[in-house]
């Protein structure tokens, strides 16, 4: 029905292709389309069959049946009709091979984007460069099933030796993650970012407000497609401008999604995803003498030993514990007695950790 080259260019996954054909056997008027923009209940889609952009709306069963609404990057099955005077009805969302989610207090979680091969975790060489924050972002990405890339923007604000020193610190902490340095202002290093992505692949940019995501995308697109604002002189930060998500095809052949800046990276996923992000911590915990080790100074505790020798940094361990606490809170949100008891446990652990560190400093 559609050429393999077109499917590859548009990022139509074989899994989604097979699911779509099963739907089409029941309704031959269905065609696949990709969500490029959302605003309330309005959607823009790129229709694979006609290679044109059409507006679309979800059927009522999405609201009445409790189905999750489409997001930017989703492949959907829509009922085709010629002419652009009406919105095409979205019948179904095709299976996602990746999805980036964040914790939402009302709904449990919110899906931000879907079907991206990479997520560019964007920060910058100024006050925004925060290792703990990057660690939390990587935990979110690990759960999404997309591959992470740490992109450090604004390398024009720092001298090369200092930049290399910071890059080495990050490489030591995030050993298995691709890290690139660039500048949207000078365009230095942009080619290193684009070289990581191939035809038909999709990348979503994720980061705090003001790190320059939209400016980077404009440089990659080679046009001022996304609105940006001047940097604030008092704190070297750009001003937040992106208010929606949009899927765009670059001249390099890959797709890119800008995300509104977020205040914090919230992880509420599976512990397996967290353990893959903190693989070094997980391996130390598995090596403890006792399987039920509380990592609180017990004999044979490898975490305690690693903290003493500096093999594991206190900062990384505390960040791991903080994320575990947040996951615990989300899983037991309505149980007040449980949280009261847990607060006492975590308070004691924090006090004991500080005391051990003070003892280590006095030696």
Task: Please describe the topology of this protein.
Elements: H1 4-10, H2 14-26, E1 30-39, E2 42-47, E3 52-58, H3 61-64, E4 75-79, E5 88-93, E6 99-104, E7 108-114, E8 118-124, H4 131-144, E9 147-153, H5 160-173, E10 178-181, H6 190-194, E11 202-207, H7 213-221, E12 246-249, E13 255-258, H8 271-277, H9 279-286, H10 302-309, H11 314-331, H12 336-362
Parallel strand pairs: 3-5, 8-9, 8-11, 9-10, 11-13
Antiparallel strand pairs: 1-2, 1-4, 2-3, 4-5, 6-7, 12-13
Write up this protein.
It is a single chain. With 363 residues, this protein is of the alpha/beta class. The chain folds into three domains: 4-93, Nucleic acid-binding proteins (OB fold (Dihydrolipoamide Acetyltransferase, E2P)); 99-258, P-loop containing nucleotide triphosphate hydrolases (Rossmann fold); 278-362, Ribonucleotide Reductase Protein R1, domain 1. 37% of the residues lie in helices and 22% in strands. The chain has twelve helices and 13 strands. It has helices at 4-10, 14-26, 61-64, 131-144, 160-173, 190-194, 213-221, 271-277, 279-286, 302-309, 314-331, 336-362; strands at residues 30-39, 42-47, 52-58, 75-79, 88-93, 99-104, 108-114, 118-124, 147-153, 178-181, 202-207, 246-249, 255-258. The strands form three sheets. Strands 10-9-8-11-13-12 form a six-stranded mixed β-sheet, with helices on both faces. Helix 8 packs across helix 9. Residues 226-242 have low confidence and may be disordered.
């Amino acid at each position: 029905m559609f050429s393999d080259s077109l499917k590859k260019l548009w990022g139509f996954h074989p899994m989604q292709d097979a699911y779509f054909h099963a739907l089409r056997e029941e309704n031959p008027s269905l065609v696949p389309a990709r969500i490029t923009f959302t605003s309330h209940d309005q959607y823009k889609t790129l229709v694979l069959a006609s290679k044109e952009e059409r507006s679309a709306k979800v059927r009522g069963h999405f609201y009445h049946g409790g189905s999750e609404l489409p997001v930017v990057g989703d492949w959907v099955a829509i009922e085709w009709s010629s002419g652009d005077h009406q919105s095409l009805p979205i019948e179904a969302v095709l299976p996602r091979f990746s999805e980036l989610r964040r914790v939402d207090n009302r709904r449990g979680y919110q899906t931000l984007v879907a079907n991206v091969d990479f997520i560019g975790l964007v920060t910058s060489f100024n006050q925004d460069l925060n290792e703990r924050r990057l660690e939390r972002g990587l935990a979110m990405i690990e759960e999404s099933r997309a591959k992470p890339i740490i992109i450090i923007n604004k390398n024009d604000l720092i001298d090369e030796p200092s930049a290399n020193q910071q890059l080495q610190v990050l490489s030591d902490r995030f050993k298995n993650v691709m890290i690139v340095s660039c500048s949207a202002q000078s365009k230095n290093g942009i080619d290193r970012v684009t070289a990581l992505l191939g035809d038909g692949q999709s990348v979503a940019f994720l980061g705090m407000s003001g790190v320059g995501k939209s400016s980077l995308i404009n440089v990659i697109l080679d046009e001022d497609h996304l609105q940006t604002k001047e940097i604030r002189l008092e704190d070297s930060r750009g001003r937040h401008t992106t208010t929606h998500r949009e899927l765009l095809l670059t001249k390099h052949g890959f797709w890119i999604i800008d995300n509104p800046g977020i205040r914090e990276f919230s992880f509420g996923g599976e512990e397996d995803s967290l353990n893959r992000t903190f693989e070094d911590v997980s391996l130390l915990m598995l090596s403890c003498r006792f399987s039920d080790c509380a990592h609180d100074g017990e004999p044979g505790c490898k975490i305690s030993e690693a903290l003493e020798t500096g093999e594991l940094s206190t900062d990384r361990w505390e960040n791991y514990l903080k994320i575990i606490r947040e996951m615990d809170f989300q899983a037991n949100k309505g149980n007040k007695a449980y949280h009261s008891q847990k607060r006492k446990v975590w308070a004691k652990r924090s006090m004991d950790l500080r005391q051990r560190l003070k003892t280590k400093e006095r030696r």
